[in-house]
Amino acid sequence: MTQAMNNDLSELARLVPIPTGRHKARELTLQALYQSDITGEDVQYAVEQLCEENHGGHVDLDYFQKIASGTWKRIEELDQMISRVADNWSVQRIATIDRNVLRQAVFELLTEPGLDVGVIINEAVILSKRYGDKKSGAFVNGVLDRLAREIRTRVDSPSR
């Protein structure tokens, strides 16, 4: 392979990132939350099913189980937080994809203080653009930007 071809492949790899195990975990979380939101079944059923289907793949299954189950357990709290900053939108009026992308991202903001806010928001925007409608990315970005400032200020400041 020539040096020029190596450079081209390196540039292509930089422009088209390979999904990480955590990205795939977030994608599976969206699937599980969406399924549970639509069917009304407990998310654990969807989690078990998706773990079986993706066992041995390039998915961080532990992280998937953690964020899917944790999001579902705190869904009422997360919905209240989202509705507070989503101007003129009740959580039930938000498109199902967007609602569940927001839920899991807010859960990560609350429970993963070591993760960069930009990574969490960017991952959520990617999922909303891929599975939502053409306005989903901007909507999700706006809601998460507001919540991230509030959450990280609260999480990062020491209690007195």
Chart the SSEs and their pairings:
Elements: H1 3-15, H2 21-39, H3 43-54, H4 61-73, H5 75-85, H6 96-111, H7 117-131, H8 136-156
Detailed description of the structure:
With 160 residues, the protein is an all-alpha fold. It has one domain: N-utilizing Substance Protein B Homolog, Chain A (Orthogonal Bundle), CATH 1.10.940. Helix content is 75%, strand content 0%. The chain contains eight helices and no strands. It has helices spanning 3-15, 21-39, 43-54, 61-73, 75-85, 96-111, 117-131, 136-156. The longest helix is centred in the C-terminal third of the chain and has 21 residues, at 136-156.
The portion of residues forming beta strands comes to under 5%
CATH level-4 homologous superfamily: NusB-like
SSE run: HHHHHHHH
CATH architectural name: Orthogonal Bundle
Ends apart, CA distance between termini? 61 Å
Largest sheet: none
Q: What's the helix count?
A: 8
Mean pLDDT: 87
Structural class, by secondary structure, is mainly alpha
Q: What's the number of extended β-strand segments?
A: 0
CATH class: Mainly Alpha
CATH topology: N-utilizing Substance Protein B Homolog, Chain A
Helicity level: over 70%
Question: How many domains make up the 3D coordinates?
Answer: 1
Poorly predicted regions are: none
Radius of gyration: 17 Å
The geometry reads as: globular
